[in-house]
Every structure is written in C-alpha cells, then in structure tokens.
Batch of 2 targets.
Target 1
Amino acid sequence: MSLTDVIDGTRQAARTDRHNAAVSFSVDHALAANTATVVDVRVRDHAFTVDEPPALGGTDQAANPVEYALASLGSCQVITYQFWAARLGIPLNAVRVKVDGDLDLHGFFGFDESTRPGFSDVRVSVELDGPAAPEVYEQLRRAVDEHCPVLDLFRNQTPVTTTVR
C-alpha cells in the first residue's frame, strides 16, 4: 500500500466518523532483573532495551532515554517528510535527519533546582535529495514542521498524568 493510499484511506475514514482518526499508543517498561539502569521496553510485538552510559551509572547496553527521545524526533521527521512529500506530490529521493540536544545534568541530579532536567536546546538538521526547486522543499519543510507529532511534543506542553499504585 502506498503512502498516498494510506493518506486517502485515512481521510475517507475520518470524514465518515471523526473518531476514526483518533489513535492511542501504549508502551510497557520494566527494570531488567539484577540491574540498576537497564529497562526492558515492549511496544506491540516489539522489544528493545534502554540503559545509561557508564558515566551515568549504566552498563551501556543500549541508548539512554534522552537519546531515544532524539531518535524519536529524527525518525518522526523522516517519516513525516515521506508522508507530506507524497501528499503534496513533491518528488523526494532521500531524507537524512540529524538531531542534537543539550542537557544540563544539574537538573536531573537535583544539584540546582532552577535548572530544568530536560533539553535546553534541540537542533534538527535535515538533508533532502530530489529534483525539485529549493522553494518546493522549503514548502515541504513548513508542512512537516506543522504536522510532525514528535516535533509537536518537543515544542508544546502536553498534559501528563502520573499515578503510582
């Protein structure tokens, strides 16, 4: 199934009933046995590991949570470029995204309560390859920036509710 088929099918389903466009995602996490920082993650039928580098007390078995956050942003950008290029009919041969983020550990460790524990700056660098004029790819960038779900998470406050049982 092509991306345009997915877009058209979703558009039709959402026109029929707006609730057809509402989706929920769920991810389960558990500390791996006999570890202090290794987390086993389950997403549908997929599994992966999260850890910290040795400098942060981990065993470096996998990327850490903030690296996965940057990976989520970059991956979402690549996918959203593909979707919006298809939707707008813009030829796109390749998409490459690099995401860098700066984090001050004073916030995470509680050394300075005035320092936020999250990223202070995130930089997204996108390389597009295709035969269209630069202004066409600038139009595509604007569409992606307006519609990328993970970029929206980075740019806007999202309500989060935490419960402990």
Target 2
Amino acid sequence: MLYTILCYKDEDVVTGWSQEEDAAVMARLGVVHEKLQRTGRLGPSLRLLPTTAATTLRKASEPPLVIDGPFAETKEQLLGFYVVDVADLEEALAIARDLAAANPGGAYELRPVLLYNPDPRLAAG
C-alpha cells in the first residue's frame, strides 16, 4: 500500500538554518532514506522551495484567479513529502518516527494514496 508522509514545519526555522545545520539534518535523513531504499520501500520524495516561491490558482471564479504565495497562512508549512510502499499504517508510522528522530519538530501527516497517473519513466527503471 502506498502512503504519503507530508512534512510540516515552520519554514522560517528551516530557511534560517546555516548551511552546516541544513547539511547535518540532511545527513541524518539520508540514513533513513538509505534504509528505505535498501528495503525497496522509498518512492519519490521532494523538498519544496519556500512558500514565497509558491503560486496559487483559485478555481472558484472564471477565469480562475492566480495569486502569489500559498493558499493559507499557517504556523507550519508543507515543506516536502515522501511516498512509501508499505504493508499498512503501522509500517508507515514507523518510518515517520524514524524521520522525526532525524529531524525533530513540526509534524508528519500520513495519508494512504492511490496511484492516479503513474509516471512511465518510473516503470522504465
């Protein structure tokens, strides 16, 4: 079963890290990534650019309204996500706990996902 693990954290904290602090967090996460890759459970994972780089298309009107920035002002922002292939929620939670130990603070939201439009490049290896 595929789960997405959505990574939320105060982006001001993350963008305020020095290069050394960022590299240390990424190195700790790399240990978790390697373990997941070895077991074939790690799918795509992405780190999003800050919300200042975001554009929102609001589709409540015609034509849709395009605005700069994220759609909501919140204390924590969506900073990235993982897709993992696991047996069940408990296994996805175990992965989220490993990620949390590597990068404390913020929150991880776990959701089961269905493959809507598979990327043929992934099937090709």
